[in-house]
Design a protein that fits this description.
single chain; 8-stranded mixed sheet; alpha+beta; 20 helices; disordered C terminus; about 800 residues; Aldehyde Oxidoreductase, domain 3; globular; Aldehyde Oxidoreductase, domain 4
Length: about 800
């Protein structure tokens, strides 16, 4: 592809092509579906719902120990506290006390051992939050302490693992290493991250007739909530309805970890036959739930004098925490993204999850991809330092191509991409090479500050790597006034899924956007659904909704064709000629004669034709063999690139991101403004991960950084003054719903350019050493690395200066 045309900067309306070929006109200035409700305070989250009569408040008793055997407790005493209705343990669960999406190993409530600080040991049922807090404060647990494991290094020494070791291999790394012109090896530390969603884990459960339960949960996975509650309480799945109106953020933290609070509330509601609600405080949420996985990665790279990587060996070890959760799938995605945007002919990737005595780590935006990408980007940066070359040249040399060097280590062809073109475009657009020269000249003369710059590409695979999860269903109902309700298994957590579903249904049926409503996500209407994750919410649910609309439209077209030809006797009925657009229906052979959409709907009802339809979609052509490490695990790739420039204080380590320019190929956006919001937000969340968000633990394994006062997420002062995003047109991308691409997770990985800009700045201190830098690059980490490079010496005669910004 010789050129990547830019999208227009502004336009009054957007033509969105229908799956059927029609082009309905939909205004582009449509706000997020819940925008008004959010800013007015009318949007209802779980704890905003008014209390039910007789509602019980639920809390829990956490383990004070990271690892030990439960020898005793005072739970019977707690039951005597006024307002306490019960204290329930694993013995009160009539069904299974173990769950897990991949490996079933995690108890809802521990039976005889605790495995992390904060692990819920018992459930408190109380008449009021005050009574629950008092019982929790007065609780005592007698625990026989056992030696805990907290770090990956400790787990490796004791061979504490979750799941089996996996491998992806291509070519002959051993030979490439032996024949290499240059060799590089080292260890890379990539630490975790808190989700920090604004709405903590929250559940409202109420009992129905005949042992039925209704669960309203802040969850990314209504089907899993239905399943775990039913199994824990020994109920049939048909006796439990799970729904979710919206979440105040999820980021992966509510994909599996909403299960335990759901079982807590359901257990109380089931036992006491009264509604029950549990809402974690922010402190408890951070202390008890899992995070992004820390990784320790050992690497060896063979490369030429020009910087081309001829061989790579990486061994990835992650800290999975106490139970499996999604750790093995996250490790798999980290392995699948260990190439990022680069073709490496001889490669060996090994991955192993380690078991420790921390809360079970879980999904977080990127799902292992960021850790795998960070490692290869670190390696390429170190190769450029070793060869004293511009890191952009090294990255561009190794970048995936089109006709050759375009196959991943796992055997999937990287097709219909524009990676090298985006890198070149961004370098030219941002004057990267000129800025690099200016920055390195500045660093040679400045004694108080350092500047750095980096340009990095990104290739992120879209699909669940577990094939059976790549399915979705939708229910579309048309009413006699021409309005439409749509229900899917997708959950809204602020990412704009419901807005896009409304646009898709409106476009497919040719009706006004305001005529469509997305209903509460519920297992009663959409069964056996995957979680809203892997950036695939719109892909799966949008395609299912579009399929349902197409079936409805086929039936309506047949009715409309008869209605129109009855008044136009010269025309033969032909439903393929019928057009639906802007609430009107016509035969394109006679466009001046139109019907209103609701007229056709009413006639169809009179003819006893169904006006409701269920759509189903499964992603085609994806498969992956874990034993061989080969296959096509992804439907397509979302790609992009970013340039970031940073300024660092040599004395304090203070870091400021000054400029960031992003370019992405996200296909044809369904809603460009929502995608822009996701891009800015994802990048900033990644910025926090790579620079400020540091998890700190006490010696006993308890989390120290469990509130906004001790855990630093990005704020407005961390946003660069120059911050641009450009979406490019890629005509080669012709698949997926309306030719769109997923945008939820990919922008987060573009933040790696910020971290690599820090590494570039450090490399200017001593051209004889490769600076080491862990994630996050906090002020303390930067100071430590500068000290290692002797960058703080000989400043006794520093003069005042103004950084050249």
């Amino acid at each position: 592809m010789s050129q990547i045309p830019s999208p227009p900067r502004s336009r009054p309306e957007q033509k969105i092509p229908s799956k059927s070929g029609n082009i309905p006109t939909i205004p582009v200035q449509i706000p997020h579906e819940s925008a008004t409700a959010h800013v007015s305070g009318e949007a209802k989250f779980v704890d905003d719902l008014p209390p039910y009569q007789g509602e019980i408040r639920v809390d829990y008793i956490p383990s004070p120990s990271a690892h030990g055997k439960i020898r005793g407790h005072n739970f019977e005493e707690l039951k005597q506290i006024p307002g306490i209705l019960g204290v329930f343990t694993h013995q009160d669960l009539p069904g299974k006390n173990v769950f897990g999406n991949i490996i079933s190993d995690e108890p809802f409530l521990p039976e005889d051992e605790v495995h992390y600080v904060g692990q819920p040991v018992a459930v408190i049922a109380a008449e009021s939050p005050e009574a629950a807090r008092l019982a929790r404060k007065q609780s005592r647990l007698e625990i026989e302490e056992r030696e805990p494991v907290f770090t990956i290094e400790q787990a490796l020494a004791q061979e504490e693992f979750l799941g089996v070791s996996r491998m992806i291999e291509r070519g002959d790394f051993t030979k490439a290493w032996k024949d290499a012109e240059n060799r590089l090896e080292g260890t890379f530390h990539c630490n975790g991250q808190e989700h920090f969603y604004l709405e903590s884990q929250a559940v409202l459960a109420w009992p129905g007739e005949e042992g039925q339960l209704h669960i309203h949960s802040s969850t990314q996975n209504t089907s899993e909530i239905q399943q775990v509650v039913a199994e824990a309480l020994d109920l049939g799945f048909h006796q439990v309805v799970s729904d979710c109106k919206r979440m105040g953020g999820g980021f992966g933290g509510k994909e599996t970890q909403a299960a335990i609070p759901a079982v807590m509330a359901a257990l109380v509601a089931h036992k006491l036959k009264r509604p029950a609600r549990v809402v974690f405080s922010k402190d408890d949420d951070m202390k008890t739930t899992g995070k992004r996985h820390p990784f320790l990665i050992e690497y060896k790279a063979a490369f030429t004098d020009q910087g081309r990587v001829t061989g790579l060996e990486v061994q990835l070890f992650s800290n999975g925490g106490a139970y499996a959760d999604l750790s093995t799938a996250i490790m798999e995605r980290a392995m699948l993204h260990s190439d990022n945007a680069y073709f490496i002919p001889n490669i060996l990737i090994q991955g192993q999850v380690c078991r420790t005595n921390l809360p079970p780590n879980t999904a977080l935006r990127g799902f292992g991809g960021p850790q795998g990408m960070a490692n290869i980007e670190n390696i390429l940066q170190e190769i450029s330092i070793t060869l004293r070359k511009d890191a952009f040249e090294v990255r561009r040399l190794n970048c995936y191509g089109h006709q050759n060097q375009n196959v991943t280590p796992y055997g999937q062809v990287v097709h219909a991409h524009c990676l090298p073109e985006m890198m070149d475009r961004l370098a030219e657009k941002t004057s990267y090479h000129e800025r690099l020269s200016q920055i390195e000249a500045f660093n040679r003369q400045s004694k108080t500050h350092l500047r750095g710059i980096a340009l990095t590409p990104m290739k992120f695979g879209i699909s669940f790597t577990t094939s059976f999860l790549n399915q979705g269903n939708a229910l579309v109902n048309i009413y006699l006034d021409g309005t439409v309700q749509v229900s899917t298994g997708g959950t809204e957590m602020g990412q704009g899924l419901n807005t896009k579903i409304r646009l898709i249904v409106a476009g497919e049926l040719g009706v006004d956007y305001e005529s469509v409503r997305v209903m509460v996500t519920s297992t009663e209407k959409n069964n056996n659904t995957p979680p809203t994750a892997a950036s695939a919410g719109t892909d799966l649910n949008g395609m299912a909704a579009a399929e349902a609309c197409q079936r409805l439209k086929e039936r309506l077209a047949e009715v409309a064709s008869r209605m129109l030809t009855d008044s136009l006797p010269n025309l033969e009925p032909d439903q393929s000629e019928i057009i639906f657009d802007q609430g009107q229906v016509w035969d394109q052979r006679c466009p001046d004669h139109t019907l209103r959409f609701e007229e056709v709907v009413n006639q169809a009802w009179m003819e006893r034709i169904s006006l409701g339809e269920r759509g189903f979609y499964r992603t085609p052509n994806i498969h992956y063999d874990r034993e061989s490490g080969q296959g096509n695990p992804f439907f397509y790739y979302t790609t992009g690139a970013s340039v970031s420039e940073v300024l660092m204080d040599r004395f304090t380590g203070e870091l400021k991101l000054q400029k960031a320019d992003l370019v992405l190929d996200i296909g044809k956006p369904i809603h460009e403004e929502i995608d822009l919001g996701q891009t800015y937000g994802g990048f900033v969340q990644g910025l926090g991960w790579v620079t400020t968000e540091e998890l700190r633990y006490a010696d006993n394994g308890s989390l120290l950084s469990y509130s906004p006062t001790t855990y630093k997420i990005p704020n407005i002062s961390d946003i660069p003054e120059h911050f641009s995003v450009e979406f490019v047109e890629n005509p080669e991308h012709q698949i997926n719903i309306w030719r769109s691409k997923a945008v939820g997770e990919p922008p987060l990985m573009l933040s790696l350019s910020v971290w690599l800009a820090v590494k570039h700045a450090l490399s200017c201190l001593d051209d004889q050493q490769i600076p080491k830098l862990s994630i996050p690059a906090t002020g303390e980490e930067i100071l430590r690395r500068m000290d290692e490079l002797k960058g703080l010496q000989n400043f006794s005669t520093i003069e005042s200066e103004i950084p050249l910004i």
